[in-house]
Design brief:
The complex is a heterodimer of chains A (about 270) and B (about 280).
Chain A lengths: L15 H4 L2 H17 L3 H18 L3 H6 L5 H14 L5 E5 L2 E4 H27 L2 H12 L9 H31 L9 H7 L1 H24 L18 H23 L6
Antiparallel strand pairs in A: 1-2
Helix pairs in contact in A: 2-6, 2-7, 2-11, 3-6, 3-11, 5-6, 7-8, 8-10
Chain B lengths: L6 E8 L9 E8 L4 E5 L6 H8 L7 E6 L2 E2 L6 H7 E4 L12 H12 L3 H14 L15 H13 L5 E5 L7 H18 L2 E6 L2 H4 L4 E6 L2 E6 L1 H5 L2 H6 L6 H11 L11 H12 L1 H5 L1
Parallel strand pairs in B: 3-8, 3-9, 6-7, 7-8
Antiparallel strand pairs in B: 1-2, 1-4, 4-5, 9-10
Classes of the chains: A mainly alpha (about 270), B alpha/beta (about 280).
Chain lengths: ~270, ~280
């Protein structure tokens, strides 16, 4: 029942975007966030939308998957919209009844702020949809490695992520086993209210934690016996390589930012 | 004597922190290059501690452990020892680090700082020796226990060791997995001359070794070829260790007056000897 879980939300198909260097994709995601914050007009948002649709097409990821990432955030987006709609003062009154005043400025701000959230989530989803968790942790390791000079544990962080990913299926299998063992002895995990069900999880979590700690001890010993001594002097089987496509992608994104900035300077107020 | 042995233990004692009595006391043994030595003992006899001492995971409280000419007491030599003496652990799940088989095989090489170009042929070679090439890109959790142990062996093999220590490597496997792991290690012992220290509580596995050390309460009680060791049927039983079924049966039959020789270990041995007793004319021809 716990089988066939997908790790993160990685969508395993082959595409130009999937093949990009994870380091570059992380940088692109950050630049995209910058671009989202630069956009202050409809044309700007149209440019962002065009970029997102283009990237999505190139990645062979169905567009609805991108939108699916928005679902957990829908309440935040709606609240952002409503707060900005009702509480932004302005000059151009659109609607007025009882104590509610909606100004044109408020409406525009509400629209832009919620759109901004939508773009932020959709853009970063595209990163996790097209990059396997293991590639992502490699990318994070190399990007953060310059911080080693200030003793930031970049390698350790990536190693922890790798081990966590390795043990997710193992621990899930074990959870399943313990759950069945407890159910065979009459444990009930499904009925009752939230508190009752949470309490029923205790006999499941205790053995799981005990075994996880034992596994950690075993693994540490196994790693040491295979000469693991931290990141120093370590080589890698997977070597990240930037290709022409990576630089092309970077160029496109920089172009997007440039267009948004130029539009903000020269066309401001021409349309809306 | 020292230079002749791949692994040598000289009056080794080891006491765990806060333990009242030592896990191993004054053990001495020498293992020759290319030898397949089984260490037999019941739970808590100290046999796993012995394995960890040889891999420099533990440092003896007293005495010296010398592996490939390196003393485990010297902290600078720890990595030299571990690359030469690879260890397979009991739980197949808890020794695989990476999310893909070939990357796990690469783990040791990455730690040693082997250049990437050199890694790939060594990984392919190691996986083909343990016949796991097909699973190169598989996730470890999709493999059977025996296959996981073979991946662990490949991980060690890629580091080109001269000693393999198996710390109850088959204890958690089903019979077919047990067979495939033991066969793989025996094949490495015979074809590549890798010295093997095989720690187990299965008599049938110990029976296939060149030499058996029996450990009880931290001491070596018996030592010799499997046939020599298992002839001490009474003594083995005193130590709560079983001898192989056939050795035990031969002992019972001898007590009843059947003239069977000593040193029967397997069903084949038994069949041959019984045939000699029952139809002497047939076996003479």
């Amino acid at each position: 029942m716990l089988k066939n879980i997908t790790m993160g939300q990685y969508y395993p198909v082959d595409s130009v975007v999937h093949r990009l260097d994870p380091r570059m994709k992380l940088i692109l995601a950050i630049l995209f966030i910058v671009a989202v914050f630069m956009a202050h007009s409809f044309v700007g948002y149209l440019l962002l939308l065009a970029f997102l649709v283009f990237a999505c097409k190139m990645s062979n990821v169905p567009f609805r998957l991108l939108l699916k990432g928005l679902r957990p955030l829908r309440m935040i987006i709606i609240i952002t919209f409503l707060l900005n709609l009702f509480f932004t003062p302005g000059e151009d009154l659109l609607v007025s009844f009882w104590i509610i005043r909606i100004y044109r400025e408020g409406f525009m701000q509400a629209l832009f702020y919620s759109l901004r959230l939508v773009f932020l989530v959709a853009g970063t989803s595209l990163l996790t949809l097209t990059t396997s968790p293991i590639a992502l942790s490699d990318g994070i390791e190399t990007l953060l490695s310059p911080l080693r000079v200030i003793h930031f544990p970049a390698h350790e962080l990536a190693m922890m992520m790798t081990i966590a990913l390795r043990f997710i299926p193992t621990l899930l299998e074990e959870t399943d086993k313990i759950m069945k063992a407890q159910m065979a002895r009459g444990a009930d995990f499904e009925s009752g209210n939230l508190m009752v069900r949470a309490k029923a999880m205790v006999p499941l979590l205790v053995p799981l934690f005990v075994s996880a700690f034992r596994r950690a001890g075993d693994l540490a010993m196994a790693m040491e016996s295979r000469c693991y001594h931290g990141g120093e002097g370590r080589t890698r089987l997977r070597v990240l390589k930037t290709t022409k496509n990576d630089w092309l992608a970077l160029l496109i994104l920089l172009l997007l930012i440039a267009l948004i900035v130029l539009e903000g300077i020269f066309l401001k107020g021409v349309l809306f | 004597m020292l230079s002749d042995s791949r692994v040598s233990l000289q009056d080794v004692s080891f006491t765990y922190e806060e333990a009242p009595s030592p896990a191993l006391s004054e053990i001495s043994a020498a293992i020759r290059p290319g030898e397949f030595v089984a260490v037999l003992g019941h739970n808590g006899s100290g046999k796993s501690t012995l394995a960890k001492l040889v891999n420099a995971l533990y440092i003896p409280s007293k005495g010296n452990v010398v592996v490939c000419g390196y003393d485990t007491r010297d902290e600078k030599l720890v990595w030299e020892i571990r690359r030469r003496a690879g260890m397979i652990f009991q739980n197949p799940d808890n020794q695989i680090v990476a999310t893909v088989v070939k990357e796990d095989v690469a783990f040791g090489l990455e730690n040693l700082g082997v250049p990437t170009e050199e890694m790939i042929p060594r990984i392919e070679q190691a996986l083909s020796v343990v016949r796991m090439t097909k699973y190169m890109d598989s996730a470890p959790h999709t493999l059977s226990g025996g296959q996981k142990q073979r991946v662990a062996i490949a991980g060690i093999l890629a580091m080109e060791p001269s000693v393999i220590i198996a710390d109850e490597a088959t204890a958690m496997l089903d019979p077919s997995g047990r067979k495939e792991v033991l066969e793989t290690v025996r094949m490495l012992n015979q074809t590549k001359g890798i010295t093997v220290l095989w720690i187990t509580h299965f008599m049938e596995e110990a029976a296939q070794a060149d030499r058996v050390l029996v450990i009880t309460d931290g001491k070596i009680e018996l030592e010799g070829t499997p046939a020599e060791v298992f002839d001490h049927v009474e003594k083995m039983k005193e130590m709560h260790l079983d001898v192989p079924h056939m050795t035990s049966l031969a002992d019972e039959l001898r007590k009843e007056g059947m003239p069977l020789p000593k040193g029967i270990l397997t069903v084949e041995d038994m069949a041959r000897e019984v045939e000699k007793v029952l139809c002497p004319s047939k076996s003479a021809t």
